[in-house]
Design goal:
This protein has 326 residues and is α/β, with parallel strands linked by helices. Helix content is 49%, strand content 15%. The protein is built from ten helices and nine strands. It has a seven-stranded mixed sheet, with helices on both faces. The protein is elongated. The structure holds uridine-5'-diphosphate and magnesium ion.
């Protein structure tokens, strides 16, 4: 049976920590009883440099339930995506499968069992997907939806309405740990890993206590980071715009020459208007061209793994070897 680690990033979550610990421990006990996970499965709280009593509470939980509750304290606040990564990589060597979930219990913990079932069914990544966003404000809902659409337009593969509530097998986390980039956007990275994936659906609830640690500023930063770390399309758009404007300048040439010959223009207008359009277009084109190279450098320096081998069938000493779930 596989050992499960539930990874929970926490930033100033003193109000919900005890509640979260209790709820998640309950889920673990239940799954252990049903013999779906190993008896030594645990919750791993990652304190993302909280300024309140979060870490003290994690220590207290660990003291009370040493085998069930573990903790990692980051030296400073590095943000949700990094805190989650730290937790996943710490859990990787100590467990067989991980589930990441927010501390505020907005994600439905009752679908964890379904995630585990799907993992046993052969999926390496199981995404938690929100059915509806009734509890979110109108603004959060529409802005989030616009964001997923925009990501799609920019050619970034993401799972619609999936945040960071997700199950990952040990080998999926191991593969993820090979992505060394610093501009993390986990939701966009997971689909790059490959492997068999699945989804479970749930209704997102209100925060159990405390308030959102994601103000508009952090949300916009996450969105911008998501697009700029995954797509060089904006650069191609500049190139396209340059070409379009040069095309317009050709039309302007025809129009200007026509006006010149029909004699409706002041002296100097023709050459001036043509230079403005043509030079403008040329400059954008040149920036776009340079941008293409910068885009390539950007992709190269990320040094992402180029492929992920899932199975190898080879013959050694007459036996066929398969390396699934090593
Ligand atoms: N979080 C974190 N570091 C931060 C901000 C948030 O670890 O700098 C954690 C937070 O404790 C929570 C999760 O990320 O467990 C999601 O944050 P929140 O629930 O406030 O976001 P929302 O659900 O409002 O988008
Ligand atoms: Mg939340």
């Amino acid at each position: 049976m596989e050992k499960l680690a539930i990874v929970v990033p926490c930033y100033n979550e003193e109000e919900v920590l005890k509640l979260a610990s209790e709820a998640l421990r309950g889920v673990l006990e239940d799954l252990v009883r049903k013999e779906k996970i190993a008896a030594d499965s645990f919750v791993l709280f990652v304190d993302d440099g909280s300024r309140d009593r979060t870490w003290e509470l994690i220590e207290a939980e660990h003291a009370a339930y040493p085998s069930r509750v573990n903790g990692v304290k980051l030296a400073g606040n590095v943000g949700h995506q990094f805190a989650l990564t730290a937790g996943l990589i710490t859990a990787m060597d100590r467990s067989d499968v991980t589930i990441s979930i927010d501390a505020d219990l907005q994600d439905d913990i009752s679908v964890i069992e379904e995630m585990i079932d799907k993992f046993h069914g052969g999926s390496d990544i199981v995404y938690g997907v929100r059915k509806e966003r009734k509890t979110d404000t109108f603004f959060k809902r529409t802005s989030a939806q616009a964001f997923y659409k925009l990501m799609g337009l920019m050619g970034v593969k993401t799972v619609y309405n999936h945040a960071d509530f997700r199950l990952m097998s040990k080998r999926a986390v191991q593969e993820f740990s090979k992505y060394k980039e610093t501009n993390l956007f986990l939701r966009g990275m997971m689909p790059l890993i490959g492997y068999q994936t699945d989804c479970v659906y749930y209704d997102r609830k209100e925060r159990a206590a405390g308030e959102s640690k994601y103000p508009l500023k952090k949300m916009l930063a996450l969105a911008f980071n998501g697009i700029s770390s995954f797509s060089v399309k904006p650069i191609s758009m500049i190139l396209g715009m340059g070409m379009f404007i040069i095309f317009i300048s050709l039309l302007a040439l025809v129009y200007a020459l026509f006006s010149y010959f029909t004699g409706h223009v002041v002296a100097g207008w023709t050459s001036l208007i043509l230079s403005i359009w043509f030079l403008g277009g040329l400059q954008l084109l040149a920036i776009g061209m340079v941008g293409q190279y910068i885009g390539k450098i950007y992709i190269e320096v990320k040094n992402r793994p180029r492929y992920n081998i899932e199975k190898i069938l080879t013959q050694t000493h007459g036996e066929t070897q398969e390396n699934r779930k090593e």
